[in-house]
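The freezer alarm interrupted the setup, so I double-checked each line after restarting. Inputs confirmed:
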Amino acid sequence: MAIDTGLLTNILFYVSISIIFAILALGFNIQWGYTGLFNAGIAGFFLIGAYVAAIAITQPAPPIVIAGFPVYPGHLGGYQLPFVGGVLLAMVAAGAVAALLALPMLRLRADYLAIGTIAFAEILRVFAINLETLTGGTIGIILIPRPIEFEPPDPFLNAMTIVGIGGTILLALLLVLQFIGESPWGRVLRATREDEEATMALGKNTFRYKLQAFALGGAIMGLAGALFAVTLGYVEPSISFAPAVTFSVWVMVIVGGAGNNRGAIFGAFLIYGMEWGSVQLKDFAPEALKDSIFYIRLIIVGVLLILLVLFRPEGVFREKKRVLR
Amino acid sequence: MAAESILGARDVQKAFGGIQAVDRCTLTVSPQSITGLIGPNGAGKSTLFNIIAGLYRPDGGEIWFNGTRIDGLPPYDIVGLGLTKTWQIPHELRNLTVLENLVLSAKGNSGERLLNLFLRPGRVRRDEKRWRARAREVLGLTQLDGLANEHAKALSGGQKKLLELARALMSDPSLVLLDEPVAGVNPVLVGSLMDLIEKLRQEGRTFFLIEHDMNVVMNRCDRVIVMHQGRKLAEGSPENVRMDPLVIESYLGG
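Predicted 3D structure, all chains:
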């Protein structure tokens, strides 16, 4: 009996991208849901993770010039690290940048923090486009090796591998974040979110907690970036790390329920599912709707968000009350 | 500063724009006393408390607590030294439960350090257990035991005042600054609240409190300091202060 691996591969692709968004949402949840830090530069940390992993694990890629025309500027790299090494480097790099950025930025109030971080992410993206010899410019970095290479190449097995690895990482991350988020440490984060001045007057160095939460969230976003690089097999700067990525993650966490890790994962699968679903539906849609189906999705997401904010502002999975014995 | 005072302020100044909220204010608080701070609205009482607690940085002057100079220290270091303040307008952590508000207010809970969660799980568990037990005791003292697992935002105004005091006690302070501890609390509860403060004083703690309820000030304080226009106007026993013509004119009324 023949299995339609085309459709399955497609569904596995949906799951693998949802997992990546879920990891981004978990990173944002520790920053905003727990600590109240409204990071508008999610795409920037995602970018750092993707590029650092890509540079760490790819083959050397010298510039390509054909008949005097520069076809590809090349990129930094050729270290050929294993996948795990790329992931760890991506997390360390994104976490370190987040910590450094936090030193000046976490002294800003909420709305200015958002302005500062979105500027940071856009500056990074412009660098990624223009620092051609480092990043491959607008073409980006291609031929990123998969965690397991199949011979001959098999898209289905490849998608299975990615979902297996991503799912394992997501589950492990969820367990760790539940453990630390629901600990006394996580309680100080939530206190800081509620009232930073009062928390300081209760003896907590709130800046230290904000710094830790921000750096940890950044490292998690870097992890998502590394997974993204091996899932697609290439990274390019123009679309993948645009501000829209940041906005999508916001919607996922708001819909799922800020301060609830399971809600963040649910939101990621739901909101990315709507994007993926609209692509799938395009072939079945009546002729008149074919071209507008993407916009219809955006309208549905928008209406959903408005209804949610009006009738269930705490999200589908609301933050649970912590009953202590 | 005199060795016999637990808290001393000398020439403390603080201006907001053109308003000199605290104007070269000098005062001391004796250990194991209940010292009242009274004065008309805008006299600078709450501002002075916020400066002492490290929430505002003074423009000038010195503040000493138990032999340590504390002006310029961040609030959490001052709490660490044993000085805690409560808020005039309750600053409850709204979406944390009452019990969480209390356990959070304990000092030195090892689970509040990220690395300890992984490196010293046994100690983290023991500390958390111990502080939860202590929090239950303090809830009993402040008559909040029935509300332990309610969100703090669900409390009434008076209950939030009790929560302020309960949280302050969790940090085991030697000096508590109470900013209007009984405002909005029903009269019966005011009595038991002040009895509790008296009992805690006898255990060795010091209380420095802002209050407009003259019953509390006159019957419960050993010493009263009067502030007016950012400076100390008068000081003495409640009886003496009540008779002071300057105080009558500026605050108590004729």
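Quick read of the result. Residues 121-141 of chain B form the longest helix (21 residues).
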